[in-house]
Amino acid sequence: MTLREIQTPNLDLLLANVYNATIVTNTEAILMSKVVRMRLQDEQMLRLQQVAQTFGKTASETGSLLLEEKLRENEFAFIEFRSSVAGRFAYLKGSRLPIWQVISTSRTYFEMDAEQTASHFGRPVAWVKAAFHYCERFQEEIYRAIADNAESDFETLKRSLPNAQAFALGLE
Predict the structure, then answer these.
(1) pTM of this structure
(2) What is the pLDDT of residues 104-147, one digit of tens each?
(3) In the chain, fewer beta carbons within 10 Å around the N or the C end?
(4) Where are the domains of the chain?
(5) Which CATH number applies to 76-159: 1.10.260.40, 3.40.190.10, 3.30.300.30, 1.10.10.10?
């Protein structure tokens, strides 16, 4: 399908105003990436480059990632982003739980019931609903993290935590 075949009102206006954009087309939608210029102080640029180095990304990619995370934090209550040995994830503020883990627990044991899940974690219902709302918007991200966790085993864990030791509990 070409850009001209897509039924879009004011397509000529859209095509005339494409500036500094990358157009990726498929049968679903037209996605555009825009170039945004901003001035950073020398110290800010240095800090951004240091964070980019730890992420293994360019300063531009890292700036875009951090901006997206901050926009999500502003949009969703009780959400913050943190790094872990497994990557960067959305967490619920005031906890050590990533959102994917709250969703996984709720799906597995409580059929996505906010009240039961909140009681399990000893948290307010609004706290759990915040995780549910985030999951509704970013389902693919959350379910991918749940699937990645399900695929991990002790051998995977040992690579991240070299001092990890397996032991069995005699709970008969």
Answers:
(1) 0.72
(2) 999 999 999 999 999 999 999 999 999 999 999 999 999 999 99
(3) C
(4) 3-34, 76-159
(5) 1.10.10.10
